[in-house]
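Predict fold of Cyclin-F; 671 aa.
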Amino acid sequence: MKAGVIHCRCSKCYSVPVRKRVRKRTPALTLLSLPEEVLLCVLQCLSAEDLLAVRAVHSQLRDIIDNHSSVWARVSFKDTWPAPNTVWLFERAAEKGNFEAAVKLGIAYLYNEGPLLSDEGRADVCGRKASHFFSLAESLRSPLANPFIWVFIRPPWSPTGSCCKAVVFDRLKAECDNNMEKKGPLLHCLARVLQLFEEDEKHMDALLMLEESSQAGCLQSSYLLWEHNRRNAMADPGRYLQYVRTLRDYAAKGCWEAQLSLAKVCSSGNPLGLEGRACADLVAQLFSSSPPAPRHHAEFSVSISLHLCLCRYILVDWLVEVTTMKDFSSLTLHVTVGCVDRYLALRSVPKARLQLLGIACMVVCTRYISKEILTIREAVWLTDNTYKYEDLVRMMGEVVSVLGGKIRSPTLLDYGEVLLSLLPLERRTTHLFSYICELSLLYSALSTPSPAKLACAALLLTRALHHYAPIWPSQLADYTGFSKQDLIPFAVLLHVKCFSQDVPKDYRHVSLTGVKQRFEDEAYQQISKENVLTYLLKLVEPQMDPPSPTGQPADITTFLSSPSSNSKRRCDDSMQAHRGSFVATPTAELSTQEETLLGDILDWSLDTSCSGYEGDQEESEGERDGESERISHSMKCHILPSVGLKYRSVLILLISHKATILVIKINNTSL
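Predicted 3D structure, encoded as tokens:
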């Protein structure tokens, strides 16, 4: 009888239907299944819009989000600006400790961009709200960080009397009397604002505020007071010694400006009476603690990186033109480009908004460094009205919030001032050093080394091009901590990028020569017109060098050559003896194809030279015998495919993995 079939109701025929076994479902894993610590980490990585969406899914998620301030403190407001329907979200996050929300709210209320307020009493209402969120943003930063909110309320103020900046200033001043915890940084900001006015009375009030701020524990105010009293202290040696000791204390507490000033003082002399080695170590600490260079965001550097690097080149060249037109300092330009690179290291930016990012960084940096500022309306006009007033205001908020309020960062010029105070150069050579430093801003590849190392490499290249001897003295090596071998790869990279490659062109096929035109001015002794390629030939022909400024033969031969075994030295001597038989085409007369070839070879050789230095290791007989074979193979792989038969001779600087200069003659027969 089949199971499940009923013939009758008797006990013989009746059977119970077979029950199917039902498998229990495995409970689905959701966000609520995660441990609370892991769930909090996930929620902290969400944007504000996504956080609101997750909050509306489940009551338990809503309770977790509302009861943990760390979620609101770390929520991202990327590309989001306060609007009438989202102001409550920004305010809630700001009160929970979100720095980005506090900065954007302060700027939004200050410029009345975003929240809709009535015209009646708008300056007073916006000023009170802006001062509250600016004060909140300043309190969320480290005590050692430089206060920054004074950048937005600095003069000029509106002469009509209803100035929102003046309201913010008065509200912050009143808050200093009621909140002792915020008194130090807030008084520092108020003093920086008063210092920019022309009235002597306000300057005296600024000094009093700096003294109160210093007593409240603001290290930056203490340093500004030291700077103000420095001139009076220099007249008395005993008093000056005490001031230098005070500066050393500020530097030990972590004030970077004090560390830079202390390095300059110790480089130009030894006022502390330390031993020579101790004084050198004190300066070397500044170079060794140089922050690493920012690396661009993955979306910026990986996807279509070559195209975006060209866009960055065009942007920096345009910023150079703006700097020249507005007569801003080189420091302003360097800090602006530094802000751009640091922002790109944290956020990806579409190509269409790169110019907006650049001009927003310049607006902020001019307010921080220069007495003459770049106004927002003028900045919009400089972009040919590509962007609107509100676009620039919002980008300023994005930049300051992403950078954490840190506008000023160490630049090449800062370390260059220490180097030049250690070993001063002639005026024209100093202009060449500044020229190389500004050229380095154009190339993203030169942002890889730290600013301290790149500044030393720029000085090494400068001294080599102007035939200083020795090129890298032991004093520079002791005070910086970098040897000549450490800097040679970066000096070669500087020369290749700045002088050996063709200048890129924009969409109009116009060469981008903003830096070159800037240094063609008489103020820089037209240093950019100097034929650097001719000097490169003189690097190869040291016996034809003119006397160096020190009166000693320039140490050019060892600039790009490494110490090696005696056999190699004999080989170099033989090359020097027969160098006159080579037919060398002057570098200044090379064609575009030959110059491109030269740059490609230097790029290829630089990659191999960075793999390690082995010049001091003894070579075996097999290695010495295979030296010519390796060079021949390198020539076939990297030179022969690029050179046509029509070239009788080509001068090639081939830097091998041991950084040895070889001058090679290529004849038709060898090709």
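Residues 223 and 547 are 44 Å apart (CA to CA).
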